[in-house]
Amino acid sequence: MRLSAQVGLVRDPSDPFSWRFDDGDEVVVRSLWWQSGYLRWAANSETDEVGEGWLVIARPAVVERLTAAFGPLRLHWRIATSMRKESAEEPEMRNYEGEIADWQSPASLG
């Protein structure tokens, strides 16, 4: 069974990246793709950075249902960056990762 179905989520018919509770009309989860700059363009300066990624946002009621169904949640993120300096052959790569174990709600980010 899909995770969304286990907590009563269905896709919003008007947006394939949004979900609502099966007994409601309000969007409660949204997945957004973001982009900053143009990934394939040459750098204009040695400090130009560009990026893209996914962000999933959810209302507190969704977090409560997930916690009830699966126990304590973990918030995990990973960011990979690269910067090509005009004088360099290869881009400089950086990776950042983090996790908050037993994450219960946005308030716990304090």
What's the number of structural domains?
Answer: 1
Strand content: over 45%
Strand order of the biggest β-sheet: 1-2-3-4
Rg from alpha-carbon coordinates: 19 Å
Provide tags for this entry.
6 strands; mainly beta; 14% helix; four-stranded antiparallel β-sheet
The gist of it:
With 110 residues, this protein is mainly β. It has two helices and six strands; from the N terminus they run H-E-E-E-E-H-E-E.
Describe it for me?
- The protein is mainly β and 110 residues long.
- The chain has one domain.
- 14% of the residues lie in helices and 47% in strands.
- The chain has helices at 3-6, 60-70; strands at residues 9-12, 15-21, 27-36, 51-58, 73-83, 92-103.
- It has a 4-stranded antiparallel beta sheet. The chain has a two-stranded antiparallel ribbon with strand order 5-6.
- Strand 2 and strand 3 (27-36) form a beta hairpin.
- The chain is elongated.
- The protein starts with a helix and ends in a 7-residue tail after the last strand.
